[in-house]
Write a structure and sequence with these properties.
The chain is mainly β. Helix content is 12%, strand content 51%. It has one domain: Porin (Beta Barrel). An eight-stranded antiparallel beta barrel has the order 1-2-3-4-5-6-7-8.
């Protein structure tokens, strides 16, 4: 767990260190919270970072990094399974000049569950991630964006061939702030 927190802090720190270089017109760097719910299972919360610029299809194409964990959701103060998702994403936003923007997103990444008991060590607890999302982004007059999507994990598990808590359907809401917007 500590490794995940340190890695996330390092990535955010590096991004903040290079901000003055990119803090110019035409660049977007959205940083916010991602609230994710797997249907019939856990709440997982964490951070999300999305980047775009005018050269990337006129701010229609975004690249991102997200980290969500049940430790900040269902496992907070309970005995729910602690699981972590690290996602790299590519998003295509439509109608960039409008307040409400439809989007599609492709995610890939890594999933790990911590079952905590020695007797569960033989059960699959790690997996690659590949998922698709579609939804809407509400772009306010502030640098604030609220995005809601429905996602589908293409790689899932049943407890034998993959982690039993990696289910196919989820939805998420991301509330982010463009820290480069003046």
């Amino acid at each position: 767990m500590k490794k995940h927190i340190y890695a996330t802090a390092l990535i955010v720190g590096l991004l903040l260190a290079v901000l003055p270089v990119y803090a110019q017109e035409g660049h977007v760097l959205d940083i916010g919270v991602r609230l994710q719910k797997t249907v019939q299972l856990y709440n997982e919360n964490g951070i999300s970072i999305q980047y775009s610029n005018d050269a990337l299809l006129s701010e229609k194409l975004y690249f991102g990094l997200s980290y969500v964990t049940s430790r900040l959701g269902s496992a907070l103060g309970s005995n729910a399974i602690k699981q972590h998702n690290l996602l790299l994403s590519s998003s295509l936003f439509f109608r960039p000049e409008h307040k409400i923007r439809p989007l599609v997103r492709l995610n890939t990444g890594y999933f790990a569950a911590n079952y905590e008991e020695e007797m569960f060590k033989t059960i699959p607890h790690r997996s690659m991630l590949l998922s698709m999302e579609t939804g809407l982004c509400f772009d306010t007059s502030l640098p604030l964006k609220i995005t809601g999507t429905l996602g589908y994990n293409l790689i899932t598990g049943n407890g034998v061939d993959g982690p039993g808590t990696l289910l196919p359907l989820y939805f998420q809401t991301t509330i982010s702030w463009d820290i480069l917007k003046k």
